[in-house]
## 1
Amino acid sequence: MTAPEDAVARARAAAAEMRAQGAYADARAAEPAAPATELKLYQWAIVEPDVSWVRSTRRFGAPITALKRLLLRLLVQYHVQLIADQTRFNVTLLGHVQRLEARIAELEARLGEDDESPAGGAR
Amino acid sequence: MIRVHQLLSGAGPHDAITTEALAFRALFAAWGWGGADHAYRIAPGLGGGIAPAERLRADPGDVLLLHHSAGWPRLGELLALPNRKLLLYHNVTPPGLLWEHAPVVAAHCAAGREQLAELVAAVDVAAADSAFNAAELTQLGAERPEVIPLLIALDALGPGRDGSAPDPPAPPTVMFVGRLSPHKGQEPLIRAFAQYRRHRAPEARLSLVGDPISAGYEQFLRRLADTLAPGAVSIESGLPAGELGGRYRAAHVFACLSEHEGFCIPLLEAFHFGVPVIARAAGAVPEVLGDAGILVEDRDPAVIAELLHLVAGDVELRTELRRRAQRRLGRYEPGPIGERLRAAVEATLAA
């Protein structure tokens, strides 16, 4: 019998043995979620709702889905304005944060230079 | 008469915290206590029992029991109420894993994490449903937070496994129960299951049960399953308790690769049905699982696949895990948990 405490070690050994025989060639761990990149943040900042997300989750909900999508079409002018305002804010804010980050990096670089100079630390 | 009003940031029909709040209310009623239960966001389909937060009417002497698991709208107004307050912390999912697929939920979680320090500072007594969660409260300045494990009614799912019952019929069935969400680990489970199926058990099946965090994420999981293990993965949402019990009874292994758990009730449900458990050692999982399951740190799908193969096929190992699971369940008997809850409310009144 395998004791529960030994099971993982036994599974590791079995996986290694199987790999040696050519199995599990494509078994790779999924990449861990990375922090959002600048590119991803810009992608999220630009609001582009997909009308296919609008649906009814009820059984026989097709007429309700159709009604919801009709309402969206009737309100399209309002939503275009709303989306434009939100996107403007998002993109402007991201740009602002980017400039602040660049400024911080510049100041940190300068601080590093000062620390390395003979008068460093005398400020 | 003691009156306790419970407040939840959100409530839903398959939500563990909502279920616990309703179980607490039944206890309060049995103790002759009054009060009512409210939530700021109520999902459709919940039925009765939880009223909108706007309808809260509390006398100054009433206790407010705040179940914290996500961001609260208008928290300042709530904390400004003159009532004594008991915080019960269920943990808040780190938002990092949720921004991509469920930005609104991620925003609620980000707010919830930010608000925790404010809550700890404002309440009279702080408690948590696991030692893992209590440690976070301690870091924020709470003094010796009480641990009140989640109150669960396993019998609602149906009778547990008869000790002499045979294993479910083939094919080997792996299952996991939990919200279909990036942090719950269904994606790595599908990948590992596909390897298990390819190299060890071609007829194996995977049963995933849980409400999707978003329609898009459910579609992503379905596409992944159709690509890696076509026809072998079932994804079901909104199952009534009896049907969920049936899924457990048909399973050979319960595999939880979740990245974050403040408690993880399905581990105890698996114990109840005698389903051996493999779980990633994340959050409160090691604490709840104890020695009654197999904790795994590995992210290699081949190792997970081999563990599935081992646990599904080794009769003596399965028997030993079931024996330990039955013993472990004794820690979560409703009676002592109810007593801890009662003591925490009385401490709040006395604070």
## 2
Amino acid sequence: MTAEARAVRPALRMRLIPAARVVSVILLLAAAGRLISDRFLTIPNLLNTVQAVALLGIVAVGVLFVTYTGNYADLSVPSIMAFSGIVAVSALRFGIVASLAAGLCAGLAVGVVNGIAVGYARANPIIWTLASGSVVGGAIRWLYSGSQVYPDSQLPAGRIFLALYRASLFGAIPATLCVLALLAVAAHLIMTRAAYGREAKLTGAAYDVARMSGVNVKLIVALAFFASSFAASIGGILLTSLNKVGAAYIGGGYDFLAVTAVVLGGVSLAGGRGGVAGVLGGVLIIGVLRNLLMLLGTDTFVQDIVQGAVFILVVGISSLMLRRAGRDDA
Amino acid sequence: MVHGEWRVTGRFALLAMLAAAVGLAGCSGHGAPVLRGPDEAAVSIGTSDLRSADGQPLLILDDAPLRPPARPPDPKALPEEDALHWWDIEYAGWRGEKAAQPRPPAGGARGKRVVCLRFMDHPYLTAYSNGMRKVADRYGIRLKTMIANNDFNIQSQQVDQAINERADLVIILPVDAIAVVPMLERLYQNGVPVIASNLIPVDEGMKYVLCWTGPDDWGQFRMLARDFARRMNYEGGYCIVRHMPGGSPFFSRTFGMITELKKIAPKMRLLDMQATGLQAERTMQVTSDWITRFGPELKGIVSADDSGAQIGIDEAVAKARREDIVRVAAGNSKVGMDAVKAGTLDAITYQSAEADGALPMKLAGDWLNGKPITRPVYYLPKHIITKEDVSRYMPAQW
Amino acid sequence: MRSLRLFARYRIYLLLAAVCAIMAASAPNFASAFNAGTILKSASAHLLPAAGLTFVLVVGQIDLSFGACMTLGGMLAIGLEPSLGWPGGIAVAVLAGLGIGLANGALVTVARVNSFIATLGTMIIVQAAAKIYCHGGTLAVHDFRLHHWLDGALLTVLCPRALICIGLALALAALLHWTTIGRGFLLVGANPSTAWFAGLRPDRYVAGAFVLCGALSALGGAIFAASACAANPTMGDNSLMLVIAAVIIGGTSMKGGRGSVAASMAAVFMLVALIDGLSCFGAGFEAQLIASGSVMAGVVLYDAFVARRHELRRGARPHLMRSG
């Protein structure tokens, strides 16, 4: 690297702070956990904790793309999850492959519409995804007459569907964690190695600069929503498999929770900064924090307060530190 | 016939008649009285043949007399584990002091407009509305449903709309038992007769309504507590997964259990109770954490919901290989009944969504036809579903 | 072209008129003075938060915690009424909202946390605090006199509650457009560095916007709870999405510098009238979701279309563009 390039490269401190904050918080929580309960650092407990937030991780990896390209959040994620799940369940009589494909396509269709509206028509992402989530939620209730749809366990496809969430690799590693690992690796490779990653970074950080540099910004943003809906569809199918029923209320709450995880993980809402590792870290923080508070025996409402407080503390402190290190757009 | 043959034949005939009688009694559900409209002869509206989707009779009623215990002078001063602390909530409306009620309009039920104000949208309530519609069609009543998205501002607006439309009767499922009171007062002042349903308003509101119908949440959970205690051998630690805050099952499905167990099984200990939003993943994590934290001390888990929350509980229990944990829940969805059949869930309460919707419409139809309403509260029958009788309630209503 | 510009500026009023016209023509019992009064009364709960949120959006920030502020405000007003009376309870509620707004303002101006994130955090905390205050149940008062007064009919379509909320909101609209302070907000949002050079302190205005939003939401929640005689832990949740949608549909831009409290009010009325009309039909919940979603989507797409046209023309010589 030339001397010039080294001079304009951000100081090591600035680059490490987002990663450091996630790692330090996790270490802090782990230490606290060890103090609170000697059963915290056991494999079963850790595995339970991780599996409880695995679906959140899958969805958050998708939302990462949306936030990374500077579009805040995808608020239609809960509806996409419910939609893909209920379509998959109702298509089970055509076989498991057709069912999964149908569910995936249903979710992706919504993602394509989101991508066109926000990427090409430049609609406000928060309001548009709120609106599309609302319309999809209404469509689900209308198409299925307000009822839920059960996978038929008499069909072999139905039994496979119900087993999707509960399967495990080598009998020990849950399938959801494997899916999360695959998605995370794929997302990381796209963001760091592929051209898409570089172009998305520029699009998120400085949209007009990217546009004038010849980056196809509209396609980049559209693909971000496509990726988010892809992850949400997979998460939705797995969540429906867990709940053993396709229903309109599946996936509720995942929109804000995913944004919380993404932001905790150091992805800046201004766009262009962050990575998959951070998102996984943010998801882990949420899971470990809940685990700790449960082991302490706190009341659910107090747990929520602590979660909110930790969230603000982490983001606030790292914001302050970044500002001290010279960056003014945290 | 020869004397001896007659005796044998007679015995067989008697046995056959007994078998038929038992069979018929078994067919009418669990012995609950089937509701017959007393004006049936007069107006020929038969409803006893109506069935809900699970094959059970649609119109069922628990006609046990209402005899609450004496009200303590200050219930709130008593500890929470004392059943009398919850007297005002549990026995709301039982005292039956009513303001003067409007008289039914002329012309009978046919063609009258009834507005149903539902508090939200949910598959249970879809089944509820199906049951209501079956009875409305039978009476020839025009039914309109408005849904309030769990917001009492919208429900207040819809109450005003019902008044504006000059509905002949309103069936209201309150968003909130307390916030509905001014709305009931408004309906009363505008001369609109009201039947409340599913969630019982507090005493102050009950004087404005004709009556309330719905499931007996407190009673059901006391029944469930007795079954639970028996399965736990009257000792051991247990945890409760609570319903969502802001609604009445948050209290009834928690303290109904706690206060009853305090009385009948004082050796059983409440280890923890959490509200998980009834979500499967959250409940799964909470249950795993309970198992980690309490270990062998945890012997039973009570759940306010037998579908999403119960799945979370079952997954966590299966993973921790603690199938010994006794599990009971509030039912009865298909997921819950499947779990009962599979043996992972020991007992659930019975709550027929369609019956919940049909009963107020039946009372409304009869009232519009001129029959006075005699009781302040009408409860649906209580029953605990276990592995032995779960197949009678399939296919599930929702 | 000029008519198109007028259309763009006043589109929310036209949309409101269109929704009312369509509903009046087709929905049974919609077109009546009583129903108009119902809509005004029901919408008044959302007017004050909408006004407050307009200020926040005008300075280029966003506030997600105002729904929780409403809930907490309502809870405090009801919970403290027995000991402090209505004035005391409502005053404490407003103070609490002020405090939450101050916290939000501090996080955004001092700690420089992105407002979406900061208010997401405060929303979680305040919601949980409200639940703890009421132990998960509903708080109530048994004295209905204030309720009868607030919701009684004054003029045919207005009840005192609606009058108070509309009056306050209009006062805030006047504050935003006709006073120096109000124009300060607009300048800070449009161009913070110019505002700095003009002698304003942008941070004060940003913090002030959050404080205003918090206090107004708490006041709105308190008034609503006083009229309902009850407060429950989920009372502000529905308001959150409705008010955010209303303010943006009304034309206030998330980038800041442009906004109108009156337009936000009109958008609130439009959304409430939409739900009212659909209930007149007895339409299912799916109709509410699809209708409100479609309206939001339509408005947002139209906004994007207008912005794109403006962008295409930007840089062109304005004096040659008579129609601009």
